[in-house]
Design brief:
This protein has 313 residues and is an all-beta fold. 0% of the residues lie in helices and 50% in strands. The strands form 6 sheets. Strands 1-20-19-18 form a 4-stranded antiparallel beta sheet, with no helix packed on it. The protein has a 4-stranded antiparallel beta sheet with strand order 2-3-4-5, with no helix packed on it.
């Protein structure tokens, strides 16, 4: 039996979809969330300036026919939410055909984060849609970076949760699982993935994508070994027998990283294609320390009666 095609970045085969807003460390375009609808790729991503120069400035909404070149159709800024910074969004289309944008927001003057949602009939309409808080966090926990999968009547959401009990150690994180009947009122369902002591992901783990694979569920996640690796997480792989989890991290090393600077390769968004392949979007560190938004295409295996299954690109 052949191995399933896994949506794991290779980096060298990728194209730059969005350049960072400036040169050098702290300038980022990334934290993508992408969907394929009727042959068009819709993308939400975050732009960021260095600390002291604005941090997470805005979430940009864009679309593309080829998955590489994007046209901006809208933007929501941090001022819209009264936030100090914005982090990873989640772009979702409801079963009724409406659009939702879940936005990660930083509380000014604190390490707290919460998640709001905007809803509209069109992607363009999200920029002016009213907002509603769906994951408020609390004085002990910051919550952000949602990943959402809908199966039947259940909405599954995974979020990175940061404990706030120890000052200067708020970068620690687990991935928590939430469920909802409507994508608006969520119930905590347990820890989906936690750090592994003594491993490359010992300091924190953040699920970045969840996808079906070979009769079970796979997840990619961002991991770091120490506080020094904050903002330069690398990508790991985990599996679960059902969406209720928990996920079990695989292997002793990351499955994907940048060859540059801090080696960061994170916030993978996986778009399944009709032919069984994938288009991937992720944030990666480039040579000058800035983060760019990259995309790559993974084609499905070529099957032949005369030769084994091989993956091509």
């Amino acid at each position: 039996m052949s191995s399933p095609l896994l949506p794991v970045p290779r980096f060298t085969d990728a194209a730059v979809a969005v350049e960072p807003p400036g040169d050098g460390a702290g300038n980022w375009s990334g934290a993508p969330s992408a969907l394929l609808v009727d042959g068009t790729v819709y993308l939400a991503y975050r732009t960021r300036a260095p600390l002291g120069q604005g941090r997470g400035l805005a979430v940009v909404l864009a679309r593309s026919r080829d998955g590489v070149g994007f046209e901006t159709v809208g933007e929501v800024t941090k001022d819209r939410f009264g936030a100090e910074s914005l982090e990873r969004p989640a772009l979702v289309r409801t079963p009724q055909g409406r659009w939702r944008l879940y936005v990660s927001c930083a509380t000014p003057g604190s390490k707290h984060w919460w998640v709001d949602v905007l809803e509209a009939d069109t992607v363009e309409g999200l920029a002016a849609a009213p907002r509603r808080t769906v994951l408020p966090g609390d004085d002990r926990h910051a919550v952000k970076d949602p990943v959402i999968v809908q199966v039947g009547r259940t909405w599954h959401l995974w979020a990175s949760v940061h404990p706030l009990d120890l000052p200067m150690h708020e970068d620690r994180m687990t991935t928590e699982h939430y469920t909802s009947p409507d994508g608006l009122s969520f119930t905590h369902a347990g820890t989906a993935l936690g750090p592994r002591s003594g491993r490359w992901d010992a300091r924190g783990v953040r699920v970045s994508a969840v996808f079906p694979v070979d009769g079970q569920w796979g997840a990619t996640y961002d991991g770091r070994a120490s506080a020094a690796e904050n903002w330069e997480e690398r990508t790991g792989l985990a599996y679960a027998t059902s969406l209720d989890g928990p996920f079990s991290a695989q292997g002793t090393a990351p499955v994907a990283e940048s060859p540059h600077a801090g080696r960061g390769l994170r916030y993978l968004s996986v778009v399944g294609l009709p032919d069984g392949g994938y288009r991937l979007y992720y944030e990666a560190t480039r040579t000058d320390g800035a983060h760019e938004l990259r995309t790559e295409l993974l084609l499905p295996p070529v099957r032949s009666a005369d030769r084994p299954v091989v993956a091509t690109a």
